[in-house]
């Protein structure tokens, strides 16, 4: 197991959010997993939450293995993998908690599948992780993605499901970024570029 | 209330009691699943339901529908959902012929109405009315058949879904194969596929539903083990999509 130090300031910040919050988590290209784990682990362990992890940035199996490598069990989290159907043999994975959507352009399907999964989970308090807006921006038109995020945020807020939206700002179109700033209730900012 | 997640919201309540609704869709759009879930939700509320299948044998229909968690075979075994093969009904009525005349159509209407009346059916699905009407050669006779059947079923308080197979679900398309079904129905639900960058996204749109102030927006539909689920389609997505599988 790799030694891994979580960013405790993120956990402290998360004590301020509620189930109908929408948290924008800004990352840089260099710290994506560290920030993701520092956000998800406290929600799972401190707040005993379950939920759905939507993976658009890389295959869900790879993300599960990254968590396993730091000793975090994510078997009670359901992964919705938007990447692996586009890779030959990508859906042949040994994890029962992964389901697949054909493509990141099927935005409505992603939302419907997430809502369906939330109806099947056992946990009382749930989150939805969207990993990530910049990955969805590779495939989707700016206006459509902005509209989608508006719907996404409001859908889960209404259902009292915490939405956590991961984003690398310098890879995200300005219109989409402006929407996130407007509609998310909280911001965890680890996306700053540090010039040495 | 249909009891179908999302559909009652779109209809602002549900399908009015005794209505005849045309569910028109392209192949693979989810018509049969929607029809079966309509019956299951009725059966769960204690209503007697019937399904007349003309497109596939009842055994195959039930085998396909068993994959859905919302369906319980006990509903069939206990007589809450009654499934009838149209081919068996034709044989029983001596209608083993290529085309139906006026008397044949009347005999068919009478037998369907008798079944509905005897069992006390309040929810009925005919899958599909297109296959059934292929045997009726005259457009006038098709119109008479559907009008009379709809009227008699409404009198009995039976809400009916007539499934119609169409090849295109575009704005300019007919919502029925023969062009007469849509004029007679109290409601029209269109189902099809939008093509987005080579991927097919199922949609459902309520075009007409008498007695309701329904939404006319296009909704994305997902067939999940728990039943159909619906959300409005993205407005900016519609400008990028080609409507219908055939992209007409």
What would you say this structure looks like, in words?
The complex is a heterodimer of chains A (196) and B (248). Chain A has 196 residues and is an alpha/beta fold. In chain A, 40% of the residues lie in helices and 18% in strands. The N and C termini of chain A lie far apart (32 Å). Helix content of chain B is 35%, strand content 27%. In chain B, strands 1, 2, 3, 4, 5, 6, 7, 8, 9 and 10 form a 10-stranded mixed beta sheet that branches. The two termini of chain B are 34 Å apart. The model of chain B is unreliable at 244-248 (pLDDT under 50).
Concise summary:
The complex is a heterodimer of chains A (196) and B (248). Chain A contains seven helices and seven strands; from the N terminus they run H-E-H-E-H-E-E-H-E-H-H-E-H-E.
Quaternary structure type:
heterodimer
| Major β-sheet strand ordering of chain A | 4-3-2-5-6-1-7
- Strand/helix succession of chain B: HEHEHHEHHEHHEHEEEEHE
Instruction: Give me the secondary-structure category of chain A.
Output: alpha/beta
Q: Name the poorly predicted regions of chain A.
A: none
List the chains of the largest interface with their residue counts.
A-B, 22 and 19 residues
**Contiguous uncertain segments of 5+ residues of chain B:** 244-248
Number of helices of chain B: 10
Number of strands of chain A: 7
Q: Tell me the distance between the termini of chain A.
A: 32 Å
Mean pLDDT of chain A: 93
Please state the overall shape of chain B, judged from the principal axes of the Cα atoms. Answer: globular
Question: What portion of the residues of chain A fall into strands of 2 or more residues?
Answer: 15-25%
* Global Rg of chain B: 17 Å
H/I helix tally of chain A = 7
| Tally of strands of chain B | 10
Mean pLDDT of chain B: 90
Secondary-structure element pattern of chain A, one letter each: HEHEHEEHEHHEHE
Fraction of residues in helix of chain A: 40-55%
Q: Tell me the overall shape of chain A.
A: globular
């Amino acid at each position: 197991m790799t030694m891994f130090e979580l960013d405790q300031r993120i956990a402290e910040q998360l004590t301020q959010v509620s189930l109908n919050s929408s948290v924008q988590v800004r990352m840089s290209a260099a710290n994506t997993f560290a920030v993701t784990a520092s956000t998800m682990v406290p929600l799972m362990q401190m707040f005993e939450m379950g939920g759905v992890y939507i993976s658009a940035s890389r295959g869900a199996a790879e993300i599960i293995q990254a968590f396993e490598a730091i000793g975090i069990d994510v078997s009670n989290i359901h992964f919705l993998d938007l990447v692996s159907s586009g890779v030959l043999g990508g859906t042949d994975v040994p994890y029962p908690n992964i389901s697949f959507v054909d493509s990141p352009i099927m935005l409505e399907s992603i939302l419907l599948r997430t809502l369906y999964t939330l109806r099947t989970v056992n946990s009382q308090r749930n989150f939805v992780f969207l990993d990530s807006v910049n990955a969805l921006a590779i495939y989707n038109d700016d206006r459509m993605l902005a509209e989608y995020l508006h719907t996404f945020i409001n859908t889960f807020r209404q259902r009292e499901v915490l939405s956590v939206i991961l984003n690398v700002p310098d890879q995200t179109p300005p219109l989409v970024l402006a929407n996130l700033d407007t509609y998310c209730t909280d911001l965890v900012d680890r996306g700053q570029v540090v010039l040495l | 209330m249909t009891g179908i997640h999302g559909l009652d919201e779109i209809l602002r309540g549900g399908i009015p009691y005794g209505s005849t609704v045309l569910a028109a869709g392209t192949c693979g759009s989810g018509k049969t699943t929607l029809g079966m879930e309509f019956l299951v939700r009725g059966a769960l509320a204690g209503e007697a339901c019937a399904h007349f299948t003309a497109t596939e044998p009842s055994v195959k229909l039930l085998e396909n529908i068993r994959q859905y968690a919302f369906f319980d075979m006990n509903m069939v075994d206990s007589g809450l959902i009654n499934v009838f093969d149209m081919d068996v009904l034709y044989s029983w009525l001596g209608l083993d012929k290529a085309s139906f005349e006026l008397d044949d159509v009347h005999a068919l209407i009478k037998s369907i109405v008798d079944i509905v009346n005897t069992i006390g059916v309040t929810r009925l699905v005919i899958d599909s009315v297109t296959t059934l009407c292929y045997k009726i050669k005259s457009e006038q006779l098709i119109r008479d058949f559907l009008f009379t059947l709809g009227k008699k079923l409404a009198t009995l308080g039976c809400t009916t879904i007539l499934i119609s197979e169409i090849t295109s679900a575009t704005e300019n398309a007919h919502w029925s194969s023969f062009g007469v079904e849509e004029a007679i129905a109290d409601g029209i639900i269109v189902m099809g596929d939008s093509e987005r960058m080579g991927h097919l996204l199922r949609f459902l749109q309520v075009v007409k539903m008498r007695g309701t102030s329904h939404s006319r927006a296009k909704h994305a539909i997902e067939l999940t083990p728990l039943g159909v689920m619906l959300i409005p389609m993205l407005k900016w997505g519609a400008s990028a999509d080609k409507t219908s599988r055939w992209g007409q």
